[in-house]
Amino acid sequence: MSDLRALRARAVTEDLPPEEMPDWATRALVEGLDSPALAELAGMGTHDPRTVREVFHTAVDELGAPPLTMTEAMWEMTHHWAQAMLDGTLTPYDAAHRIWNAWHRLDHPDELIGFVGDISQWDDVPGSHSRIEQSLRAEASEYLRKRQHPASSA
Question: What residues contact 84, with CB distance under 8 A and at least 6 apart?
Fold first, then answer.
């Protein structure tokens, strides 16, 4: 369920482009997931992006993913981006920049201020990139430790 929640969050925040949705649906079918809209989505190819998004959301509804508001999706994505920074799937700069954008969209929550402070120094102090990256990784670790992901708390 947490994978579907994260996937929904990616779609709500437009981090998952519509052109990737049919490929996701095909992989999901191969992995054993099934629903009428999922099969429809897998066969869509390059249709109108709005239609693809609608069928995608119907498919994840049918698979039991919870609906998410934009705020809930943004919080989910801050978790995803912090984890991606630590996993190396996003650079510290890219992950922190996305978190900085989320900070603006979420009306400047204190929980994200460490990322914002570090990334705002990036252009101001170019010789300090490796120190800033190290600080961003530490911030990501602490953030993930404090904000337990719903799927990991038991």
Answer: 90, 95
